[in-house]
Amino acid sequence: MRALFAGLPPRALVVLVIVAALLLGAPLMVDAYVLSVLILCLYFAYTGQAWNIMMGFAGQLSLGHSLYVGLGAYAAAALFVHFSVNPWLGALAAIAICTAAGLVIGFLAFRFGIAGVYFAILTIAFSEFTRIGFDHWTWLGGSGGFFLPVKERGVTDLATLRGPPVMFYYAILALTVGALALSRLLLASRLGYYWRAIREDEEAAQALGIDTFRYKMIAVGLSAAMTSLAGVFFAFYYNNLFPEQIFSMGRSIEIILGPIIGGLGTLAGPIVGAFVLTPLADGITEIMQLLGIDTPGVKQVFYGVCLLLVVVFLPHGIWPAIARRLGFAPH
Amino acid sequence: MALLEVRSIGKSFRGLRAVHDVSFDVVDGAIAAMIGPNGAGKTTCFNLIAGVFAPDAGEVSLGGRRITGLRPHEICRAGIGRTFQVVKPFPQMTVLDNVVVGALNASARVGDAEREARRVLELLHLDGKSRTLAASLTLPERKRLEVARAMATRPRLLLLDEVMAGLRPTEVDEMVGVFRRINRETGLTILLIEHVMRAVMALAANVVVLHHGEKICQGTPAEVVRDPAVLECYLGEEAV
Lengths: 331, 240
Fold this sequence. Notes:
Chain A is mostly helical and 331 residues long.
């Protein structure tokens, strides 16, 4: 516990406490729509952090993280629907399956020296052919979709993860906070030093005694395991899964935008990025409706321009700029 | 007693014979140097010892243990620290964190590694820079960081690849002083590749001369600089 908060300036602690209080109390203050946006923000904050461990810390670019979301979602959902396995056990299965998938991809790439953009292409390939496979897997609904039974949403049943949005809000909040704590502890550990060394210069890292294969595998496995839980969440929150959506490359890109815009390799970056981008995307839709503009593509263009402005003016992301202004030492 | 034994190592790249039948020893606790013209195979020799490539032929042993064909991180664990001729700092990490990565090779806990890193940084006069990013160091500072990182791994043998290149004569003398002191105080064995003869003459007890991938001469610095073959191919007549 002490290691978690060690070295944080007092001002950062104050900010942390305020943000925590706001997030904990949010369901009491906001309506159903804002709550759904907040859930989405936290969902991307969580998946962004999971991806950030692999790319931001260890420097391994994955453009196929929707693979782990999809596998995790289908694993827990299939166990629940077909075998009535409770989702908490289903989550363990999801973790096991996704870790295995990540390790297979990692092994193929790192053993045979596939690195950089070629590694990224490999991750796309795996998520794409998994999508096509699931499209034809009728036991899991194929391209027609796989659905979880929706019961009374008013009653909170934690054991089977059936309940109102507020329950899902706190579930994803817990995951996000857990991921932040884990990221902070890892970054300050031997593992964190080794990951950053590998990210910066792999050959130099090897010369300093680091078994780079092993530590890259750990990064991929851990990132996949964490992402799988987002998949389980997704399945039980939305209750419907379509391979076309959940495994799509667009979903992978959505996952990585948060950390890139927020600040790659930083602890707060993925969270800040998610909380800036998600309301922005939703807000644009709202504003367009208010202004009565329904020209197709305007929303995407505006979204693109916003991304462009961030990349041009804050090339290291939003968080490092804020952190500097607030006087926090960027890690 | 020989700490490093190199026996008839050879390596070709697509038919180009980079290193051929090179043998030499480095005595435990000594400082030795490897010199020769550009393209003579010095860095390839280092890479064969450090495990970047496996030699096509020959054997390398450290303290009697055969280390031929081990991977670079295993060689580091076995006790060989190295620097790169083209420096490879971790640019987006602080100078201290760069050295902590090296120190974690010998100490499991980050706190211990940090203490060791600070000690090494002081030794190389980089302690004032510990909180700056490695990306913003000058070249001479990067060269010293390279040495600090390799030393922090607590090697038995330190391989230095042209760490004096680009330094002013006073800076060379300072580095020479640092290596002498480390060697005297800790008994660390050093093998250096160097073009700066001022440093070689001041430091090395034994010099190996490579030319076209082969060893053409070996001896004390004074013997080597008088050797006609060495004068012919490398130092030139005016060196005498």
